[in-house]
């Protein structure tokens, strides 16, 4: 049986701050970065994982990854794979490291990178993409792979097991459906705050032409500016002349679009403030944007403020605007409380802020129980590659629904991955199908050599120019 013999980490940073990609009300000059790990065994079997950061501090996360990954060295891989929930508990149970969390902040996102690398290794060992590994598990195996500690007041193992069993019969049919249609996606790339109106208009037209029906823009610096950009985007997405040839407008009153404030062509607009407001500011500001008819406001306030999100949701509900959050919800307990407090209309899990697949499964199960759709956070670097797997698991094995869901898609940095995600002609994610791609997060060695901080060829070259 293979044993884990060691690992290497890489601090990989991409200079996205030069172009305004990823700019929003809170994050103005970010360099999308990956704190990356490869686990090695005494055979050819490896596992790749990463967590995402915005640049500075990525080296600190790499240091934390080393501390967490050390806990796997010497372990028998098959023993780990046989009980991934127990493996997750082991990763989070170091009595000394726990003090610098627990289960939040740097140590937790580092655990996410390591747990994801272990799941990647497990999928590679079975020669299945990660999503397929999990949807092919029995309900009992899924439960064993899930982190349940601290959430059993919201969902017990027995309840989760009966939910999974109830979805067993339809799994094959749903898998065939999504392989054929692809998974619904939405586009954020058009609406970064740092872009000019001309660039926003051009990118929005391109996104409509590519088949997208859901669009997100960043808001929160200036109401008049946001209204102008929102109306600009609406003027394009609501106009049938920009639809791709042969595509008919969607019925805005259909079940798939219920409650989404869809325009006449069935297009949906979402807005994202990236935590910039206090609670009452959020309510006032979003009220002033109601003419652009957003489906939801994402991250209206501090990500830990569960009751604040509930207050924003209650105040905006009469105006038909929902609340979404999750990309900074640091563990399953925050999600549990967001659901228990009726604070969100949409659950936006993050694949590597949560500590890997085992914790993601617990949030997928809770969201299904509470009837809240999961629309994962993506973008950054590597996040789109990861999250298509999670949405497929949600649809095929857990919630059983996808047409009301949409998965974020941002068209940046995919070229650095060996098996990048892709979008079909109807603006939907293709299903990863290479049996050797694991969790789809393996980065090209050449990309690591070029963008590793501080001595990769790109960064060394830039320093040489600045001298
Ligand atoms: Mg966001």
UniProtKB/TrEMBL annotation:
User: What is its EC class?
Assistant: lyase
User: What PROSITE patterns has UniProt attached to this entry?
Assistant: MR_MLE_2 (PS00909)
Q: Which cofactor does it need?
A: Mg(2+)
Keyword field: Lyase, Magnesium, Metal-binding
| Protein EC | 4.2.1.68
Molecular function GO terms recorded: L-fuconate dehydratase activity; magnesium ion binding
Q: Does the keyword Metal-binding apply?
A: yes
What this protein is called in its record is L-fuconate dehydratase
């Amino acid at each position: 049986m293979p044993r884990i013999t060691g690992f290497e980490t890489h601090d990989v940073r991409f200079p996205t701050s030069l172009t305004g990609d990823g700019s929003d009300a809170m994050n103005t000059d970010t360099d999308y970065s990956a704190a990356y790990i490869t686990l090695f065994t005494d055979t050819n079997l490896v596992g790749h994982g990463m967590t995402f950061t915005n640049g500075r501090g990525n080296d600190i996360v790499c240091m934390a990854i080393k501390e967490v990954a050390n806990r796997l060295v010497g372990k028998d891989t098959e023993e780990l794979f046989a009980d991934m929930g127990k493996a997750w508990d082991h990763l989070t149970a170091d009595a000394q490291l726990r003090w610098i969390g627990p289960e939040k902040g740097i140590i937790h996102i580092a655990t996410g990178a390591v747990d994801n690398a272990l799941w990647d290794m497990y999928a590679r060992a079975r020669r299945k993409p990660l999503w397929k590994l999990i949807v092919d598990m029995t309900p009992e195996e899924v439960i064993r792979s899930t982190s349940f500690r601290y959430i059993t007041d919201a969902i017990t193992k027995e309840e989760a097991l009966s939910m999974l069993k109830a979805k067993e019969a339809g799994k094959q049919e749903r898998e065939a459906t999504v392989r054929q249609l692809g998974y619904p996606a939405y586009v954020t790339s058009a609406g970064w705050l740092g872009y000019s109106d001309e660039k926003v208009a051009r990118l929005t037209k391109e996104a409509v032409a590519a088949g997208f029906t859901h669009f997100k823009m960043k808001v929160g610096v200036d109401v008049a500016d946001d209204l102008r950009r929102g109306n600009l985007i609406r003027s394009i997405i609501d106009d049938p002349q920009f639809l791709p040839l042969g595509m008919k407008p969607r019925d805005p009153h259909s079940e798939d679009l219920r409650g989404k404030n869809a325009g006449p062509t069935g297009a949906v607009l979402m807005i994202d403030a990236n935590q910039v407001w206090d609670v009452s500011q959020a309510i006032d500001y979003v009220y002033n944007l109601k003419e652009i008819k957003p489906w939801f406001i994402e991250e209206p306030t501090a990500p830990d403020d569960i009751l604040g999100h509930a207050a924003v949701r209650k105040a905006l509900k009469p105006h038909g605007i929902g609340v979404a959050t999750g990309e900074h919800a640091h563990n399953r307990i925050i999600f549990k409380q967001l659901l228990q407090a009726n604070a969100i209309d949409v659950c936006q899990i993050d694949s590597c802020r949560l500590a890997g697949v085992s914790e993601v499964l617990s949030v997928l199960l809770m969201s299904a129980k509470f009837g809240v759709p999961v629309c994962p956070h993506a973008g950054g670097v590597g996040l789109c590659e990861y999250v298509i797997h999670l949405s497929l698991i949600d649809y095929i094995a857990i919630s059983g629904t996808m047409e009301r869901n949409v998965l974020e898609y941002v068209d940046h940095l995919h070229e650095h991955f060996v098996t990048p995600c892709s979008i079909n002609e109807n603006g939907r994610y293709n299903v990863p199908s290479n049996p050797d791609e694991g969790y789809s997060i393996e980065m090209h060695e050449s990309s690591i050599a070029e963008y590793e901080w501080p001595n990769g060829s790109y960064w060394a070259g830039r320093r040489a120019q600045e001298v």
